[in-house]
Write a structure and sequence with these properties.
This protein is of the alpha/beta class. The chain is about 35% helix and about 15% strand. α10 (about 235-245) links the parallel β6 and β7.
Length: about 475
């Protein structure tokens, strides 16, 4: 079996980009001063860093610790919260703007002089993407009047700070191509930058794979980069590999809506199992379009806009090293075309059927990781507590299969589930954020077996009414006992 050797998870706090999310752009068209409207609800970096779900995301806080914390979480910051954690970091906006510019190979993003200089100084001292990492330097900034001229002449997208200052401008890649507008390219660049940051964190871990040994990279983010003739042509994977110095790697993008990461991990495991590649990296960057997606509900309830971070992850899949948790390719759950769309049919296809195939039941799984959307972001907008609802459906399946009594549903949810803590960027939220916690539990803690599930809303593309789903079992390596 292939193994998952390491994972990294990162967040970039970008309050100034919230207004460029798809929902804010549409909802604030009639608002004369959208920045002034949003300002009272935007957090500073200190508040975002001390937000408990964000600390869970980078591994500084456990999922059970989050479940025990008083709610609402945004009113109870984590005392002594740290920027860096076992799995990654929460990067401030000033630095991330510089990282965007350093990832821009076509000089389409220009930053204000002062912004560029601050970002250069901070990034040069960064432990993962410092100058010694070999990354492209942050380009020199330009004067404010030059930025305003580009915005007027070329319809560049202005980047405006929370306080109303012009921070930069994103030029279009072509004057007549709707898929290369400044807005679309900024979304693509944000995806690349967050994925690149996650990959650099992965490569910087003690005992990590060397950049030159990465042979294949799979990107499973939601941005379908391309041009007017190849609107979803890709390839973010190779762009990120190049930036991170993986000179011997090639790669491709896997698209399956929110289910993309599960497909990508499955394919990575298959590449390793086949012997075609010894080391495969699966990664994804954040979705700028989903910033502020539920902001109207947050504003209505006089609370901070919690969807102010971009997420990214990277995972290393390799041959069995006798220590790292196994990715079991013999227990993959699939939502097939004929599986049906009822909740019971979906959970049977994704949980009980693949487990039964290898002689296991739901009670043989210590933790289930599924759609981990932060309920504090979704409930104010009327979208409910997605993880809790799904865990209860899964517990109901355990009742139907006579594994537990009906009175045991809530105990099942508490013991084998977890609170949602992920930003609402679907491909990220679908199970992946728990992977760092799971690897620690399966190697250093008391976990024996975990199960990860991603579901995709294929009907959003108007090509089919179907949904999608893939589940994966990750379990303790039996060889680990011999290495203790």
């Amino acid at each position: 079996m292939p193994v998952i050797r390491a994972v990294s998870l990162v967040l970039a706090h970008v309050p100034s980009l919230v207004r460029l999310g798809s929902k804010p752009v549409r909802a604030l068209r009639e608002v004369e001063q959208p920045i002034d409207y949003l300002r009272p609800y935007l957090r500073d970096w200190t508040a975002a860093c001390a937000y408990a779900p964000n600390q869970v995301f980078i591994g500084n806080l456990g999922v059970d610790d989050l479940a025990a914390r008083p709610a609402p979480w945004h009113r109870h910051p984590v005392v002594g919260a740290q920027r860096f954690g076992p799995d990654g970091e929460i990067m401030p906006e000033d630095e991330f703007l510089g990282l965007l510019a350093a990832c821009d190979g076509f000089d389409l993003l220009a930053l204000d002089r002062d912004v560029a200089e601050r970002a250069r100084v901070a990034l040069d001292a960064h432990p993962v993407v410092g100058r010694e990492s070999g990354r492209r330097a942050v380009p020199d900034g330009v004067a404010a009047d030059v930025l305003r001229g580009r915005i007027e002449r070329h319809h560049a997208v202005p980047l405006v700070g929370v306080e109303g200052r012009l921070l930069g401008a994103m030029l279009p890649g072509h004057e007549e191509d709707d898929t290369l507008t400044g807005q679309v390219l900024l979304e693509n660049l944000a995806c690349k930058a967050t994925a690149a940051l996650a990959l650099r964190h992965l490569l910087a871990r003690p005992g990590a794979i060397a950049s030159g040994d990465v042979r294949y990279v799979i990107s499973c983010g939601e941005e379908a980069v391309g041009d007017r003739y190849q609107r979803g042509g890709g390839n973010v994977a190779k762009a990120v590999a190049e930036w991170a110095g993986c000179a011997r790697a090639t790669g491709s993008d896997v698209k399956a809506f929110c289910c993309g990461p599960m497909h990508a991990l499955m394919l990575a495991g298959a590449l390793v199992r086949s012997g075609l590649d010894d080391d495969v990296v699966v990664l994804a960057g954040g979705s700028l379009a989903k910033l502020g997606m539920k902001f109207l509900g947050h504003v209505k309830h006089e609370m901070p806009i919690l969807e102010d971070v971009l997420a990214g992850f990277a995972a290393h899949v390799s041959r069995d090293d006798g220590v790292s948790p196994l990715l079991r390719l013999d227990a993959i759950g699939r939502h097939e075309v004929a599986s049906g769309s009822s909740p019971l049919a979906v959970v049977k296809a994704l949980y009980s059927e693949p487990l039964a195939r290898v002689g296991l039941t739901l009670l043989d799984v210590d933790r289930f990781s599924l759609e981990l959307h932060n309920p504090e972001a979704t409930e104010p907008a009327g979208s409910g507590n997605v993880p809790l609802n799904n865990y209860r459906t899964l517990a109901s399946l355990a009742v139907i299969e006579k594994l537990i009594g009906r009175e045991g549903i809530e105990d099942f949810v508490r013991a084998r589930g977890m609170p949602g803590f992920s930003p609402t960027q679907g491909h990220i939220a679908s199970a992946i954020p728990y992977l760092g916690h799971a690897l620690r539990g399966l190697t250093e803690g008391g976990l024996t077996r975990t199960m990860f599930t991603g579901k995709g809303s294929l009907f959003l593309g108007r090509m089919t009414q179907l949904s999608d789903g893939i589940s994966l079992v990750v379990e303790r390596n039996p060889g680990r006992a011999g290495t203790a």
